[in-house]
């Protein structure tokens, strides 16, 4: 199993779904993990349950708060080796029903929040000339989806944040990659309804939904030394949905 003993990792949006599975996977590999969520009480509770070092409240759209927290984690634990920018939102809307507020929320959180996190992490990691960052894109961002124009646009941007940041930060020995999950069994996909879920399963080569733990294992690999020559990639974890 991947060994992350002695590594310090930060996972945003780590209180549920893929984020929580990632926290558990990194803890299992021996990393010291700090997770964040919007609800401080829940973040602390989840941290205690998962064996994480701390659970902190964070709004990733607040650049100053993100910068302060990232610097605080590095100072508290003596390093910051891995950051997983998982925090994000999903709101479906047909093209004619997309409001300015929806677009604003989606871009501020999924795009702005990811940039804030990558920026803050890069500032800390560049001092040590070492680090790995993984951002959460989506297969929807790579291929589009009816009823998810705004969400798809935001996740396409996230994939390109990874590509662009990788080109910029490689000289500092900082790797940046993205994962693009397909339909995964989480709270964010439970709203789709049985009919849509059945259609997605039918379209997936492996004929099932993915599990958060399957995405988390890929993230764990990408932040480890086993992926030491991998950067700027958007890894589809979709069971063959795009085939």
Automatic annotation (TrEMBL):
Belongs to the short-chain dehydrogenases/reductases (SDR) family. It comes from the Bacteria. Pfam families: adh_short_C2. This is SDR family NAD(P)-dependent oxidoreductase. PROSITE patterns: ADH_SHORT (PS00061). GO terms for molecular function: oxidoreductase activity, acting on the CH-OH group of donors, NAD or NADP as acceptor. The keyword S-adenosyl-L-methionine does not apply. InterPro entries: KR_dom, NAD(P)-bd_dom_sf, Sc_DH/Rdtase_CS, SDR_fam. SMART domains: PKS_KR (SM00822). Keywords: Oxidoreductase. The lineage of its organism: Bacteria, Bacillati, Actinomycetota, Actinomycetes, Pseudonocardiales. Residues 7-182 form the Ketoreductase domain.
């Amino acid at each position: 199993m991947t060994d992350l003993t002695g590594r310090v990792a930060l996972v945003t949006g780590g209180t549920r779904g893929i984020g929580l599975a990632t926290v558990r996977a990194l803890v299992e590999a021996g990393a010291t993990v700090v997770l964040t969520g919007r609800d401080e009480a829940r973040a602390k509770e989840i941290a205690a349950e998962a064996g994480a070092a701390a659970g902190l409240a964070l709004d990733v759209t607040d650049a100053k708060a993100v910068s302060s927290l990232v610097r605080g984690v590095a100072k508290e634990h003596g390093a910051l080796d891995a950051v997983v920018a998982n925090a994000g939102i999903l709101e479906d809307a047909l093209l004619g029903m997309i409001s300015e507020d929806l677009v604003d929320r989606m871009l501020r959180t999924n795009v702005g929040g990811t940039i804030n996190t990558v920026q803050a992490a890069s500032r800390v990691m560049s001092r040590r000339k070492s680090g790995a960052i993984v951002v959460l894109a989506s297969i929807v961002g790579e291929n589009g989806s009816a009823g998810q124009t705004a969400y798809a646009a935001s996740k396409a941007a996230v994939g390109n944040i990874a590509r662009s940041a990788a080109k910029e930060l490689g000289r500092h020995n900082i790797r940046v990659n993205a994962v693009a999950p397909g339909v995964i069994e989480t709270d964010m996909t439970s709203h789709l309804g049985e009919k849509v879920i059945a259609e997605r399963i039918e379209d997936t080569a492996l004929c099932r939904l993915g599990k958060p733990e399957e995405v988390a294992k890929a993230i764990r690999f990408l932040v480890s030394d086993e992926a030491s020559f991998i950067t700027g990639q958007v890894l589809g974890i979709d069971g063959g949905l795009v085939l």
